[in-house]
Amino acid sequence: MKRRDFLKRSAQVGALIPLASSGLMARPLAYNYFNRPSGAEDRILVLINLSGGNDGLNTVIPYQDSAYYNARPALNINTNSVLQLDEKLGLHNSMTGIHNLFNEGNCVVINNVGYPEQNRSHFRSTDIWHTASDAEEILFTGWLGRYLQAVHPDYPSTLPDAPFALQISTSTSLALLGANGNMGIALENPEQFFRLANGLEVEPTPLPNTLAGPELEYVRNIIQQSDTFSKEIDNAMNSGANNTTYNTDSLSLQMQTVARLINGGLPTSVYIVTLGGFDTHSGQLGSHSLLLNYFSSAVTSFLNDMNIGGNGDRVVCMSYSEFGRRLNENGSSGTDHGAAAPQFVLGNPVIGGKLLGGYPDLINLDDRGDLVQKVDFRRIYATILSDWLGVSTAETANVLGGSFGKLPIFTTLGATDEQRASRAGILLEQNRPNPASGRTEIAFTIPTRSFVRIDLVDSRGREHGSLVERELEPGRHQIQVDLSSYPPGGYIYRLQTGRHRVSKRMAIVR
Amino acid sequence: MMDIPTLNKPGHAGFRRERTEDVTTTPLSAGPDADLTPWSPTGEDPWDAAKAAHLLRRSGFGLSSQAIDSLLTSDPATLITAMLAPTPAPEPPGNWTTQQPFPTMGNAQLQQYAIWGRELQEWWFTLMEKPEFGLREKMTLFWHNHFTSEFSVVYVAQYFYLQNKLFRDYAFGSFKELTSKVTVDPCMLRYLDLGLSVAGNPNENYPREILELFCIGEGTYLDGTPHYTEFDIVELSRALTGWVVDGLQGTFRSTRFDSGQKTIFGQKANFGLGNGGDRDVIEWIFDQTDLDYNHKRSAIFLCSKLYRWFVYDVPNMEIVAGMADTLVANNWEVGPVLHQLLTSKHFFSEDVRGAMIKSPADYVAGAVNSFGLNPDISTTGVNINRPDTHDPITAMNSLAMTLLSPPNVKGWPGGRTWISSVTLPQRIDYAAKWVAPISGSRDYKFDPVAFLNTIPERDDVHAVLGRLLILLLPIPVGDAMEERLLNTLLGGAPDYEWDPDHPSTTQRLRSTLVEITRLAEYQLM
User: Fold this and answer.
1) What is the C-alpha separation between A37 and A389, in angstroms, rounded?
2) What are the structural domains, with CATH classification, of chain A?
C-alpha cells in the first residue's frame, strides 16, 4: 500500500467517526472565523482616546520651525528639551517611554491626521472619529461596531461568552455601536462586576407593544450579558496577572486592567481606554505635560507587560483625539480647537521608528489658522482593519463606507496568512464537493515532514473537533470526511502546521 | 456607502430615532397620539392609580403609596398647577455660600471646596426626595444638565451654589432670561472661559457652546443651510467679550469689550450683552428661525430636550412644535409648556408609559420615596469597594451621575446610556440592600410595617400586591409573574391565610420587594 493510500484510508476512518454527535465540543468561542484570514483571530487592538483635543504641536514638536516659536511665545517647548525623532520633529520631553518605543522600532507616528472640513465641536468631531463618517455625514453606528457586526453576524441572537469589545468606563462609546446593538460593554472594576453581575437572570414577563417594549428588551439584554460576561471576565482576572508596575493615574489603571485580562486569556479583541483633560484652553503648559506623561508611561508599562506575558506580538495600541489645536496660542495661556494632529500606533507588530504623513506645514494653514489634514484618519482605520485585524479589502471598504489607502504601518504589509503559508509551500485546497451533503474530500500540501492539524469550526465560532491530528510526510494529502451528521450551515476548516495557519470555508447542505 | 440602519421604531412609521437632541432631519411624526390637548377621564379611560403613578414618576423623583391615593382625589390640571406654584426658596446649605472665594488655590483650598461641594450635593438630594418639590427639582436638574458646569474645572463651591439657586429660581421661568443670566454667572464664566475673553483675543469656548449645546444645536436644515457657521462663532466671541468674574458675581468691564461691528447670523451690528454694545446678542440668538419648522430655533431646540426629559428619548416633533408654540407665546416661560405637556393626551397615552429608563436620580431618590427610606446621607462608614455601605450620593456617583459633575459640557446623555453591564448589576444590588440590608451594610431604615400600613386594603393580599406593582413598576408584568410574586408574598400559603400582622410577613415582604426590583421593568419609568 502506498503511503498516500494508507493515509487516505486512515484519515477516512478517523473522519468517519461522527464528530458532530461525539460531544460536539460546543465550546462557544468569542470569535467567528469567517471574514478573516486565519492568524488574525487572536489579535488585539487597544484604542487610547486622548479626549478633549490633544495639542499635537506640543506633542510632536516642530523644533526647528521658527513659525512654531513665533506663534507660541508662552507655550512653546524649548528646542533643547525635545526628544528628537528626526532632524525636524521631536516628542515632548515628558514622553520618554514612547520615545524609547520609537527608537526600538515599536512606534509609528502619523502626522497631519484629520479629515476634510474639520468640525471643531468636541462632540461632533468625536462622533466623526467614532463613526468614521465624513464631516457632513451623520452615522448612527460606529466603525468598530460595524466591523464586529460583520465578524459576528449572529449577534445578538447568539450571545458570546466574552464581550467582543471592552471599554474601561461606565459607558461605551459610539465607536462600538453596531446595527444590531452595542458590540461592546463597559466596566470599571472587574472584581466588583463579577460580584454583582454573576447570577442575574432575565424573567420572561411579556414585552409590551408600546414604546416601553424596546427599552425593556434593552435592559434585559444587558442583564443577560452582564451575567455571562461576568463569569468569563472573572476567569481571566483569576488566571491573569500584571508583569510590570504602573503609575496610579486613571489611564495607567485602565491599561493595567486590560493587560491583566489579556494575560488571563480573555478572548476579547478590542479594548478602549480613555484619558481626558486635553481641552487645554487655559493654563496649558503644566497640565498638558502631565497628561502626555500619563499617556507615555501607561503605554510603555502596558506593552512591557504584554511582552513579558508573551502577548507582545498580539497587541497593537492606537491613539486618537477628536482634533488638534490652533497653532497660535490664545490669550489665556492655552490653545483653542484646531484641526489636524499626529497620532500614534504602537506595539511589536508595527514597523516602527518612523514618521508618516509628512511634516506639519505651519505656513499654509486653513482659514482658521489650523494645520491642514493630509492623512484621512480612516486610512489608519483601514490599515488596522486590513493589515492587523485581517479584514479583506472589500469588507474594510464596506465597514468604512469607502476605500481609504493603507499606510505602511505593519510588517505583514497586507500579506495574508494564506500568502505567507503559500510562500512556505503550504497549500490548502477547496474541499470537493462543496457544498457537501455527505462526504467531501479535503486536499492539502506540506513541504516538510511536520505535524498537521485540521479543525472544523462552525459559523458561530464553535469548534467541532479535529479532522486530522498527526505527523505527516511532505507532499499532497487527501482526506475523506463524512459530514452527514453535522447540521447544515457554513463552516471553516482550518489547517495548522508549524507557525502557519490556513483556512477555507465550506458549506454543508441537506 | 454601506447600509446604515435608520433605527425605526417598530410600529411607528416615520419615527426615526435621533441620537442627539438635534432634530433638524426628523420629519414631523404623526404618531397615533400626537395630541397636546388636555387629557380628561372617560368611562373607559378613567383617572386611576396607574396614571397617577405615571404623573408622579415623570414630574418628580418617584412616589409613595400615600401620594397615589391623594392624587386620585384630584385631577391632573389641578395637580400640575399646584406643582408649578411658587415655593419658598430653601435655606442655603451653609454660611460658606456667601464667603468670598479663596484668593489662592492650593491643596487646602481644593479640599475645602470639595467638602462644601459635597454638602451642596447632599442638600440638593434632600430637596429632590421631597415630593412637594419634585417638579421644581426635576427642572433644576434639567437646567444643570443643560447649562452644564463641572466641579473639577471650576472648583469654587460658592459658584455652584449660586448657579444651582439660579436654576431653581428659573425652574419654570424664562429660558431666554435664564440664558442671559447664566452666560455671565460666575460658574459659567469660569467653566467655559468667558471670564478670560477680551477684546483682541476673544475666547471661543462659551460662544461655541451657547450655539451648539445651549440654544441652537449643531447641524444643518433640510435645505443644507447650517444652523450656524464657524464665522458666527468668531463674531459671537467678540460680542461676548468684556465679562469677568468679580468675587461672587460676573461683572462687565467695558475696557475688555470689543465694541466694533460684528456680523452674526448675517446681521451687522455692535452686538453685546448687558452694558456691552448697542444690541443684545442673546435676543438675536433667540430670534433665529428654524428653517425646517418655521419656528424659533431655540424654542424647537429646548422643547425637544424637555420632551426627552419628561416623555421619551426620541422627540415626537409634532408635539415638540406644539410645545414651542406655547413657549414663544408665553415669552419663553417654561411653566406653561410643562403644564401643557404634563396634562396632555400624549403624556397620558399608554404608548409612552414605562418608556423611559430611570436616571440615577430617579432611581435613588425614587427609592427613598417609594419605600419610605430615611438614609443617613453622610459619608461616615462608606467603603467605596463595598457598595452596600454606600450613602445615596455615593450610590448616584457609582451609577454614573455625580451631581455638579456631568461627564462633559454636553451633560449626561441619559436614556439607555444609564444602563450598562456595570451600572445595571450595581442598581439591582443597591435596591436589594435598601429593602433587605445585610450585616454591616448601611441602614436605609426601611420599615416594612410602616410601609405596609401605607397600603389601603392591606388585609387583602391581592390588593397589596396590586399596589406594590403600581407603585414600583410602570408596566404590567403578566399573570405568571404576578402569581410568582404572590407566592413569595404568601410564602406558599393560600391567600386566605394572609395576615399582614404576622411576624414573618415583614420578611416575606422584603423578599417580594427584592424580587420586584430585580425585574427589568423596575429600571423603567
Assistant:
1) 9
2) 3-34+417-508 (2.60.40.1930), 44-178+248-400 (3.40.720.10)
